[in-house]
């Protein structure tokens, strides 16, 4: 009794499955398979999320590189001093990143942090606007190219039309042939007439019957055989080119009307002065202010000097001296002095023309 009772655990330990429940084994197998599936699913989701993050970071870095290119090109044309300083900052950030300095793990982040205070908000926003405009144009052109590629060709449309037609229905060419009238007696004359027909009958038939297309081509090329000779005097016959256009139903070219140019000797308008006369207008205005209001005259001269200095510095909003002086000077002077100077300038120009 003791041997049999103590033998069961030893047999189970040595590998005898008689004392073990099969239901418990199946439950353990299902549990481990479920754990393995969960681990595989979590690994797949982690890899997918990491790949999406990497692709998003690559897109952001590529966009920032394009932004830096647009910004540097804009600074090179507008402010060379700031352009050289920004180039130096970018080179320093790249060098610190290669050396592994703390805070320079990402070139994009460190350049954006250190470059914006040097450049300023005005140039930064202007470069962002230019980049967004260029990207919008690029997307529009790519969409147009894709639309042109997706358009079906003429052969594809023809094949689809013929495929959708019913098998018993006649084709368009057969319908056109059925709609044509029956040939008359004059049209039934053979292309190569017999030798016993008199020449007068052939000449009359040539006047009434339209010339075929093949004979027209041979008529243009005299070296071809069997040329159809037309009579010398045909009062009602048209030239070959117009008759060919009429038979082929080509549209006749329309003659465009002659271009009417405005007269050159016109009086100058009384509106705002043009760019070439703006210097003369400023002289007239300053002369009038000097006689009437010396304080306003000194203020206007100071404003003109400030606009010129800012134009030389390539500041935003001062790309043109004429435009900037016109905007700021009119605001300071007032409409009364401005209009009076316009009238005086118009009178002087009229005297010069006379």
What does this protein look like?
There is one protein chain. The protein has 354 residues and is mainly α. Among the domains are: 50-150; 278-353, no CATH class. 69% of the residues lie in helices and 0% in strands. The radius of gyration is 46 Å and the shape is elongated. The N and C termini lie far apart (145 Å).
Reconstruct the topology from this structure.
Elements: H1 2-14, H2 22-78, H3 80-99, H4 107-119, H5 121-150, H6 154-164, H7 172-179, H8 199-208, H9 213-220, H10 240-248, H11 278-292, H12 294-312, H13 321-333, H14 335-353
Helix pairs in contact: 2-3, 2-5, 3-4, 11-12, 11-14, 12-13
Biased composition (Low complexity): 155-164, 226-253
Biased composition (Pro residues): 254-272
Region (Disordered): 1-27, 144-198, 218-275
Features of the shown structure:
elongated, 354 residues, mainly alpha, single chain
Short description:
The chain has 354 residues and is mostly helical.
The main β sheet shows up as: none
* Number of strand segments: 0
Radius of gyration: 46 Å
Q: How would you spell out the order of helices and strands?
A: HHHHHHHHHHHHHH
Shape: elongated
Helix content: 55-70%
* Parts with pLDDT < 50 across at least 5 consecutive residues: 1-20, 154-169, 183-195, 202-208, 224-235, 267-273
Distance between the termini: 145 Å
How many helices? The count is 14
> Kindly state the mean pLDDT as a whole number?
68
User: What percent strand?
Assistant: under 5%
Q: What structural class do the secondary elements suggest?
A: mainly alpha
Biased composition (Pro residues): 254-272
Biased composition (Low complexity): 155-164, 226-253
Region (Disordered): 1-27, 144-198, 218-275
